[in-house]
Amino acid sequence: MEIKGKAFVFGDDVNTDEIIPARYLNTSEPKELAKYCMEDARPGFGKRDDLKSNIIVAGENFGCGSSREHAPIAIKAAGISCVIAKSFARIFLRNSINIGLPIIELEEANKINEEDKLRINFDRGEIVNETTKEKFKFQSYPDFMKSIISEGGWINYAKKLIKEENHEKK
Amino acid sequence: MGMTITEKILSEKTGHKVRVGEYILIEVDIALANDITAPLAIDEFYKTGIKKVYNPEQIVLVPDHFVPNKDILSAMQVKKIRKFAKEQNIEKFFELGRMGIEHVLLPEQGIVKSRDIVVGADSHTCTYGALGAFSTGVGSTDIAGVYMMGKAWFKVPEVIDVYIKGNFRKYVSGKDFILKLISILGVSGANYKVLEFRGPGIENISMDSRFTISNMAIEAGGKAGIFPVDDLTIEYERERGIKVEKLTADEDASYMRRIEFDLNELEPQVAFPFLPSNSKGISETEKEKIKIDQIVIGSCTNGRMEDLRAAAMILKGKKISRNVRCIIIPGSQQVYKNAIREGLFDIFVNAECAVSTPTCGPCLGGHMGVLAEGEVALSTTNRNFVGRMGHVKSKVYLSSPVVAAASAIKGYIANPENL
User: Mutate which of A13, A28, A96 to test chain B, going by most B C-beta atoms within 10 A?
Assistant: First the structure.
């Protein structure tokens, strides 16, 4: 799989209250949530018309705070194709894997600048910064997570498990 | 090699000795969701075409964030949960007037207990570590997975050993300990890891303070914050008709890091905007005379009897400053009743505080005390992120109920010692 897009750069400890403030959580409609994506980190971000297939880049501990799945849902529904960060908070990582939002842990995330054009190859674990001509390598997911991703998320994975269990019972 | 409490609980459930880093799929005892996170889980569940949940006994639903419903959309969310509970014969659905803030309610009602595996679509689900449960926050999709097959996935975590000795000084409590610990660890210092508390100081930490401490493990990124099961836990559970046995880590358990902590050296802490890790001692903080507009005493962190009693001790016979408003929120209907019985409501109302029915409300800027542009709050809640309690240009400081009450009287962040 390959993704191409430009970078929107954020800092460290971007929390879920900034990604999708609680005042917008009286709904779980993805399109509605998308409008307020990153609202308290960068007001108006979710309403930009150039989010589609582009990439969020951040520092340490992206997605810390609440367990609201609305955070990765808002990002995904806004059209963002991938989030790259130095590290992710645990529940955000889990939610992203579960709903199928591609995320990448990259130690050198801080070397990427606003509007840099990135090309990400997931099979090779490689990011090319076409603006600065730099190349970065990233670790692929552990096997267990890969199998969730390849099923298209946790719900599909669970369906498969249930099917297998029923099959064994028979 | 001996085992940590985490490894013991997870090994018991999987039936084999787990190792750190291993991925496991296990049946959970309780799966919790609230009015923000349950609707997503319910939608995901029904989309699969499965008609009946795996086991209604596992499921707990507590609308508490925007309850009493603040607007039409939030009323629709609770309506969806109510319908789901009825369709699926879920008994542990808690309606307004019989509810509480989820993490106050569940231990109080004996719904979660020692050695349980608990997942909750709420980050503060780690609260139940206070009872010696393995309890952690997950997302709505994880909860939908439990509705489907009763199970959730985990990676067996590394453990940080928090070794505690000594005893709290006057006006110091669990909140001060956890704020200090988060300042040592940083907001991601325990990411993917479990904090396990032990040492001779543990017996000096009350159950309510333990809940406060475990509750905020997530503010250091922690997957859980677990206390051993000791005489105090056994007594707490016995009062709820639950019989539990002692549970401690083995002497030769393996930890990735050790932090030693002497409670005697601790003074009340205040976390400055915009991270829970930005804490300073009260003596230094008081010098800054930080003016506040609003005080909130309550939440899943500090909405229990010990918290309300501590606030009442300070507020008794006094009136709060003319320049502040103070909102007090008992954490559950039971806490509410107890507070009335002990005369705490009289103290609060006579001090000119507003007392509310249980709700998460202002903690997340939901309702019941949202901040205006430029306003400053001192709150006994758990997060002081940008815009957390309202306007993106408002500020939140975090403290214990004692410091919050003393500050309500003074109108600025004040040391209870100097009242």
Answer: A28
Helices A90-99, A70-77: crossing angle, 10 deg rounding: 50
pLDDT in tens, B273-323: 999 999 999 999 999 999 999 999 999 999 999 999 999 999 999 999 999
Tell how far CA B13 is from the center of its chain.
Answer: 25
Cα–Cα distance between A135 and A129 in angstroms, integer?
Answer: 6
Q: Give this complex's ipTM.
A: 0.95
Average pLDDT over all residues of chain B: 98
Measure A112 CA to nearest chain B CA, in Å: 22
Q: What is the CATH number of domain A2-139?
A: 3.20.19.10
Q: Which residues contact B219 (CB under 8 A, 6 or more apart)?
A: B178, B182, B187, B276, B277, B382, B383
Look at residues A142, A145, A126, A143 and name the one whose alpha carbon lies nearest to residue A134: A126
Supply angle C-alpha B226, A90, B262, rounded to 5: 35
| Class of the CATH-defined domain B269-414 | alpha beta
Q: Where exactly are the structural domains of chain B?
A: 5-263, 269-414
A-chain residue closest to B144, CA distance: A155
Q: Which residues of chain B have pLDDT under 50?
A: none
DSSP bridge pairs for B151: B27
pLDDT higher than 90, residue A167? no
